[in-house]
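DUF7869 domain-containing protein
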Amino acid sequence: MTGKAHMFMWDESTAKRGSQKVGSCLVKYINSLDDEIKHAIAYTDRCAGQTSNVNIIMFWMYMFEGTNIETVHHKFLEPGHTFNECDQDFGLIEKRKHNEMHVYVPDHWIDVVRRANK
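Tokens:
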């Protein structure tokens, strides 16, 4: 664990927020990992449109065929108990947003995220 967050951003005029886009972000992230990493743990909520559907199952199958990942523990958070470490990162982004004067276009959000660090 590096304590480092990785954010993938796009505006919804470019793409929506469905499972195919989530899978694309995961492919990009996993392909950036060291080849010696063989095991992964994924924590997701129960959002059927993004993380609990056949597209994500197919994504994991693709990862097993195309990377050195051998095992994945995909853990689904229980509704109502979904606080995760990354939620702190989103809290930092929200806090930083309140310090910004002008957040009008997607590029402004990218700047807010870059400046929201511990």
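DSSP finds four helices and two strands in the chain.
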